[in-house]
Amino acid sequence: MDPELEAFVPLFPRLPVTDPVAGRKTYAELAAAKPAPDTSDLEIEDRTVPADPDVPVRIYRPRGARGAVIWLHGGGYVMGDVDTEHPWATRLAKDSGAVVISVGYRLAPEHPFPAALDDAYAVLTWAAEHAAELGIDPERIAVGGHSAGAGITAAVTLRARDEQGPRICFQLLNEAELDDRQETWSARHFSDTPWSNRDVVTASWRHYLGSAPATPYAAPARAADLSGLPPAYIATAEFDPNRDEDITYALRLLQAGVSVELHQWPGTFHGSQAILSAEISQRQIADLGAVLRRALSE
Hints:
This protein is an alpha/beta fold. It is globular and about 50 Å long. It has an 8-stranded mixed sheet with strand order 1-2-4-3-5-6-7-8, sandwiched between helices. It has helices spanning about 5, 20-35, 85-95, 115-130, 130-135, 150-160, 185-190, 200-210, 245-255, 280-295, and strands at about 40-50, 55-60, 70, 100-105, 140-145, 170-175, 230-240, 260-270. It contains 10 helices and 8 strands.
């Protein structure tokens, strides 16, 4: 493990994902403890996207931005909202120069699959239909997310392809949760890794799926056909149960003719980017912004 990250492992909290209410409280407290980001060079607006039910979003608009990313937070499908994602979304908007539309999708287990996917897809459709009002180019809309949000991202791209929905120019999957089967080497062996481990992932999928069987829209690794999807950037952490399913997904995208940039970050663990003082975290975060900037440039 990266020595700068390893020094923080004893201080890293365990999220009680088995208890969603307690998990949300801990997650919100961690987010609130972060220093408030500098938002002076951004226009920030809270809006509600009409849907059934309506979906809260927070829009971050850098000066002169034309590209946009529909951004889906992490949290194991059970935690997180636009407030907990505020520091991350702010940084992403600044580094990418793109409009970031942060989505407050519904959470499991109260709202199991397909609620989160429906919310994300509704925001994508709304953004494409209201591109002129939002000041963005409808040909430069990406979808991205972290962890569970990255899993929803992959599902959104599959659904948009299958339903001939809005054009997505790029997908960004950061440490994505893609496969409920947990059959890969990393999923089976990483039982005591920081922040996320096999038990945490198992609980996350149980909450998200409820009593329903997994489909490709719930667990995109199950999709048989990955052709015709937008170009992808996939980032993985070395000590992450999700690592191998993400690498496999990247290879399958490549084999299906989809352009992919795959970045495996050595010495990292799931969510270790939160340790902002570590040099590797700074490189990871900067890379995400630079990737989006390139993907959404004219």
